[in-house]
Design goal:
Layout lengths: L3 H4 L13 H25 L8 H26 L10 H10 L2 H22 L1 H7 L2 H29 L3 H4 L10 H57 L13 H11 L6 H30 L7 H25 L1 H12 L1 H5 L1
Length: 348
């Protein structure tokens, strides 16, 4: 996965980089750190929030914090550098290239696990209930870290060994032409395929929900007709010897309809999937698109201002994820409210 084409400065004039970007980057960096640390604090202090699914949430949170800790400061420093040139050390350049490749891929894989988990739970609930365990969640989360590193690190290490000193060239970027096969494999496996799967899964679940809603409406209408017919038949029946009526069929029809009704899918889970996927698409598609064009078609790198906006969107996404988690989870909202009002809630 190569974010090289959208994040690094390559000698464009300083006037081409928007002066406001470093300020916005710093603001989003602080907001992202605050929100992600808040999510960690909520799970650490509220036992009721802890579940098997929370392992995936914490996995995403840790990946976002790693990205913020490494990418944020270096991106801001490189953005504010004189003339758009890289003025930091070679080691800092290597760390920066790592931060633009491995952590973003981990974040995408963490999103993928959440979508795949909800897809499994909603489509095969019994199988999910019997086979999904904390060990399974932990192994999948570890895989989400191992896979991006196993693909990203070889290219970064090779580039670091053969890259000219950045203190001389003033350029901190991966040589995509020399590492073309690695860049193509990484872009497909760590970006294009996961994002495509997440979009397809969300479309499938939305269509499935719409179909089930139509089925519930049809069953409700059928139940109403059956109930009316049963009441009519009961009213026209002759009274029994005991002076009562023959048992009606309305209660039996209602009971049968309730037993055969399809279970409603939790709205919170679908909102969580939709929110995380939309935030990922908004914030990552520009970068994935530019990187894919740069790798597959070999066009010139985009303007420095566009690269700066891509970096801004990366930081925005790390702030949107915990915000979506809190807004779509009633338990997290309640825990956040208690955390914010602290002692005042106890006094009341």
């Amino acid at each position: 996965m190569n974010r090289n084409g959208t994040l690094n400065h390559t000698g464009d004039s300083r006037s081409s980089v928007w002066q406001a970007l470093p300020i916005l980057d710093l603001l989003l960096l602080l907001i992202g750190l605050l929100l992600n640390l808040t999510v960690l604090a909520l799970y650490a202090t509220h036992r009721r929030l802890r579940s098997t699914f929370s392992i995936y949430i914490l996995n995403l949170t840790f990946a976002s914090l790693l990205f913020l800790a490494l990418y944020g400061p270096l991106h801001i420093l490189s953005t504010t550098a004189s003339g758009g040139h890289w003025t930091l050390s070679d080691t800092a350049c290597t760390v920066f290239l790592y931060s633009t490749n491995a952590p973003p891929a981990i974040i995408i894989q963490a999103h993928l696990l959440i979508v795949a988990n909800r897809l499994w739970a909603l489509t095969r609930p019994l199988h999910y209930r019997h086979h999904h365990t904390p060990v399974t969640a932990l192994l999948l989360s570890v895989t989400a870290w191992v896979l991006p590193h196993s693909i990203s690190l070889p290219g970064i290490v090779l580039d670091a060994g053969e890259r000219p000193p950045v203190t001389v060239t003033g350029v901190c970027m991966l040589d995509v032409d020399r590492l073309r096969v690695w860049a193509i494999v990484g872009e497909i496996l760590l970006a294009i395929a996961p994002i495509g799967f997440m979009v397809a899964a969300n479309v499938f679940l939305l269509c499935r929900q719409h179909k089930r809603r139509k089925q519930r409406v049809a069953r409700a209408l059928s139940l109403q007709r059956s109930t009316r017919l049963s009441v009519h038949i009961r009213d026209t029946e002759q009274p029994t010897a005991a002076g009562g009526h023959l048992p009606g069929k309305a209660a039996d029809a209602s009971k049968e309809a309730q037993e055969n009704a399809a279970p409603r899918e939790p709205k919170g889970g679908l909102l969580l999937l939709a929110g995380l996927t939309v935030s990922l698409l908004i914030c990552w598609l520009p970068s994935v698109g530019f990187a894919s064009v740069n790798i597959f078609i070999r066009v010139k790198l985009p303007h420095a201002g566009i690269r700066g906006i891509a970096g801004l969107l990366f930081l925005l996404q790390t702030a949107l994820d915990p915000l979506v988690l809190i807004l779509t989870s009633a338990q997290l909202r309640h825990a956040t409210h208690r955390l914010l009002c602290s002692g005042r809630c106890r006094a009341q």
